[in-house]
Design a protein that fits this description.
The protein has eight helices and 13 strands. With 326 residues, the protein is an alpha+beta fold. Strands 3, 4, 5, 7, 8, 9, 10, 12 and 13 form a nine-stranded mixed beta sheet that branches. It has a two-stranded antiparallel ribbon with strand order 1-2. The chain has a two-stranded antiparallel ribbon with strand order 6-11.
Length: 326
């Protein structure tokens, strides 16, 4: 039967035992030297330890595919994760686990509420030594900053049972480059982020919209030119058609036009003949005796020939006529 796992010594200096699978306390974390390097008492909790952002960060799909360093002379002091961008980070602390202890770590709830999503392996393996690594995704619509040496993760440790055949193997990862290239066997240049994919798709959509706008503008101009062209054509056709129809109307009614014109000439000639006959019957003395228009104008208030004058003229005409007959 498996035995208990030794715990930290008691006040008498004797080792105590703990049950299998129990969570280690803060005292046990110190006793087993689980935070092997960069340990700080201010981040130790009753049954866990808060991890801080380390000096190496990789922006997936951004820049020249190189590791960004933080905290050093001339280096940046924080990282800015854009909306839907991902980074691979390393912790400041170096963890070292014995064969009978495993660890699990996750993102603090406050950072999760801001929109960060963490993806890590299921456990820190027994006999592991090195900083811890993970993938952070900004699922919010704004940029999120993380400062160098800022605590944003929490790790807890567990005891394991006894090993019988499958024994743990020692594993050491010294840097973020070793983790990506050596441990994960990945090409740094192949790592992308959702933000990069989204930007690519948005660019394709913008290009397609611009193409549609340009095409629509050209089609609109061509269609407008065609409309003007056809408008001019139909206008010319309408004018010509009006002339043709008018000419055909005159042609088919030419006899009526000639007859109407002859009737007009006959009426005109008849009017002229009657006017001449009337003028010939009036003696020249009678015509000279009529009041001239200038004399009518000089009379002042009278604008027409006085009605009393007209009978005397008529009587004179009658007298003259009778004398001529005698």
């Amino acid at each position: 039967m498996a035995k208990g796992i030794p715990g930290p010594p008691n006040a008498s200096g004797e080792e105590t035992s703990t049950q299998f699978g129990g969570v280690l306390t803060g005292d046990q974390i110190i006793h087993h030297n689980l935070v092997h390097d960069k340990y700080s008492e201010g981040y130790l909790r009753a049954a866990s330890y808060d991890l801080r952002l380390g000096s190496e960060v990789f922006y997936c799909g951004r820049g020249n595919n190189t590791i960004t360093r933080l905290g050093g002379s001339g280096d940046a002091l924080s990282v800015e994760i854009k909306p839907f961008e991902t980074i691979i980070f390393s912790t400041l602390e170096v963890i070292k686990t014995p064969p009978n202890i495993v660890g699990r770590f996750d993102l603090k709830i406050g950072r999760s509420l801001e929109g960060l999503i963490l993806q890590v392996g299921p456990q820190v393996e027994p006999m592991y030594e090195g900083p811890l690594f993970g993938l952070l995704l900004n699922a919010s619509g704004r940029g999120i900053s993380l400062n160098f040496n800022e605590s944003f993760l929490t790790i807890e440790f567990h005891f394991t049972g006894e090993y019988y055949e499958k024994m743990p193997r020692a594993k050491t990862i010294a840097s973020l480059t070793d983790f990506i290239v050596t441990d994960q066997n990945m090409d740094i240049g192949s790592l992308t982020s959702p933000a990069q994919f989204i930007e690519k798709k948005l660019k394709e959509i913008r290009d397609e919209l611009n193409s549609c706008k340009t095409s629509h503008g050209i089609k609109t101009k061509v269609q407008g030119a065609r409309n003007i062209k056809w408008t001019l054509r139909w206008t010319i056709v309408g004018v010509l058609l009006a002339f043709v129809l008018g000419g055909l109307g005159v042609f088919f009614n030419w006899g009526k036009v000639v007859m109407a014109y002859e009737n007009f000439l006959q009426r005109k000639n008849s009017s002229i003949s009657r006017a001449k006959d009337t003028a010939d019957t009036i003696p020249s003395e009678a015509i000279e005796g009529l009041t001239k228009p200038s004399e009518l104008t000089s009379q002042g208030s009278k604008s027409t020939v006085d009605e009393k004058t007209t009978p005397s003229h008529n009587s004179s005409l009658i007298d003259l006529t009778s004398e001529g007959q005698e």
